[in-house]
Amino acid sequence: MGFYDDQVLPRIIDVVLGRMVDPARARAAAGLSGEVLEIGFGSGRNLPHLPAQVTRLLAVEPAATGQRLAQRRIATTAVPVEFVGRDGQRLDLADASVDHVLVTWTLCTIPDVDRALREVHRVLRPQGTLHFTEHGRSPRARVARWQTRLTPAWGRLFGGCHLDRPIDELVTKAGLTLESLDNYRIGPEIIGFGYEGVAVRRD
Fold first, then answer.
1. How many folded domains does the chain comprise?
2. Structural domain that includes position 116
3. Low-confidence residues in the chain, pLDDT < 70
4. Where is the Methyltransferase type domain positioned along the sequence (predicted)?
5. CATH number of the domain enclosing 122
6. Alpha-carbon distances of 39 from 9, 27, 73, 120, 140, rounded to whole Å
7. Which of 39, 52, 173, 189 has the fewest Cβ atoms within 10 angstroms?
């Protein structure tokens, strides 16, 4: 990870995805309990939204600066936080070992997102759930084409972020079953077509 991605980008994201998206964070965290894995922990902005039923949070975060920015929030939460890795594509956790997984604006940046979601499926206990709020491909073909054209340049600025990933399709491809899904625009549709929902591991 280069200097920009490790030192600069986490600070930008901490501001851009700040208080104005707290309602989406709260919706994504609703219903979590027990042991929760968060992939893309960032600066810990989801911590204040965790329900009291969460007993431990296992955090995956690639940027050292993100982890440092999170320390103030970790210090003020009652939920024990343990960093368990930096790569969502290779989780150092046992099969069927967590109750829920939380991802917020993370699936757009993981290079091998299919592998990461297979890892989510693997570590979830049966009937465990993935809670997510993401942005991705617009259902409008013209907008989606522009998203694909802009993604290479956009990704260089924002840590490999893809504008055009079909989040719902990726989740179900990994073997998870969508229980709920809401789509909505977050600002300009070309960069902010939202996917928010819950998917369950049935097997």
1. 1
2. 3-200
3. 1, 4, 6, 10, 12, 14-18
4. 37-131
5. 3.40.50.150
6. 17, 17, 17, 9, 29
7. 52
